[in-house]
Design brief:
The protein is 35% helix and 26% strand. By secondary structure, the chain is α/β, with parallel strands linked by helices.
Length: 159
Amino acid sequence: MTQGTLARRAILIGGSALLAASPLRALAQGAKTAIHVLKDPNCGCCSAWIEILENEGFTVTTEPIAGTQLMRYKSENGIPQEMISCHTARVEGYMIEGHVPIADIRRLLYKRPDSVGLAVPGMPYGSPGMGPESEREAYEVFLINRDGSVEVFARYAAA
């Protein structure tokens, strides 16, 4: 081994040790993203979606809320009537409405568009928490713009 190889190894090992002992360790290991979900306390599909979030590494808090209170919350936070689903979540300043796939939430958080958030209106069968993906019906994930307009963010074909 050459002296240059040994020096590079020492730098890599030392740098790794510093990273492991530093506050950046959580960032390097993929710190969990916190998401707060408002849902009807009796909704099973909402609970299934929350379980998927937790299994994918999100730190989930929930708040039971129903009826007109939940609808008012959605409206006050920029969710258009035609985008409404059963549960609503907030993650890093974005609203997530309905059974939005985890990959789309992550893409939203990576791209950070100036928008309200994402929505999967209704409760399409085979979307996360709504039955097996192998029997999925076609659906779209919408990006909700600040002016209330929407555009397709992702499309999922029928299985």
